[in-house]
Amino acid sequence: MLVLGLETSCDETGLGLYHSDRGLLGHTLHSQVGLHAPHGGVVPELASRDHLRRTVPLLRELLDQTGTGLSQLDGIAYTAGPGLIGALLVGSSIGRSLAFALGIPAVGVHHMEAHLLSPLLDPASRPHFPFLALLVSGGHTLLVQVDGLGQYTILGESVDDAAGEAFDKTAKLLGLPYPGGPALAALAQDGRSDRFTLPRPMTAKPGLDFSFSGLKTQVRLLIEAHPQPQHRADIARAFEDAVVDTLLIKCRRALAQTGLGALVVAGGVSANRHLRTALDSAAASDGFAVHYPPPELCTDNGAMVAFAGCLRLQAGERAPSDCGARARWPLAELTAASRTGVLL
What we know:
Nucleotidyltransferase, domain 5, 2 domains, 5-stranded mixed sheet, 10 helices, 19% strand
């Protein structure tokens, strides 16, 4: 089965082609960072209009890149939520319309399920069910027990800011440019780990939930106490250390509680080098396996949507005839695949 995936949930327009036997054939991506940078964040109306401009040219580019014709498609997958409702409706409208014109099925994909499954794109290194997943991005921080396609148990989540959101807001406090998360991580590489120490929130008591908003307050106090520019890198390093240690502590705790032996890490923050180094070291010492998507597939992309959509289509799922989308869509509301054996 050859599936086209469309990702338009926020500020990246991504398309991908996934074949159930041949794997990922190719993907194209346009980032709107330059469009939103003057505003210091994503402007929903601008994002929607840019998706409209970019999707068809990117589709032509992807088809040319892979030598594929529209008539060869067996299905179309699009991100149906969660995300910016206007941006989601662009992808769902194009996906449903194209599927109708071609007479092929379409399916709406959950954005976080697509992220969760993205480390499984490579059949040579994918884990077997069940496994633990850490989904860590600008909008979500979740620990999930994954027993199968659509069989997700939320073990812990952020009670306030997601980790990626905390990175972006802390970067703004430090006067770093948009997008703040990568800029903060780059600055932290020049910082000393022994200069400042920030708390590891919600790690001193049992449980798997997260809280990152208080770290921003601690950073603000550090900046006020040490306003000199030479301290910025040390403050950035202290913040990154605190977030990475907190994520690591909770992952270890979840693995111990569930008895699972594999950890999947996905979402934009999963590209963070410090986090990967810490998790790899823990995996080597504790004896669990850790899996990531390739760095270029950590942020939003069409490849993960095509893959997740292919699995859902193989399980017999079909989207309704309308172009519906959901700005809010809890992962726990997803249904299990109606047919087993479509993966692994």
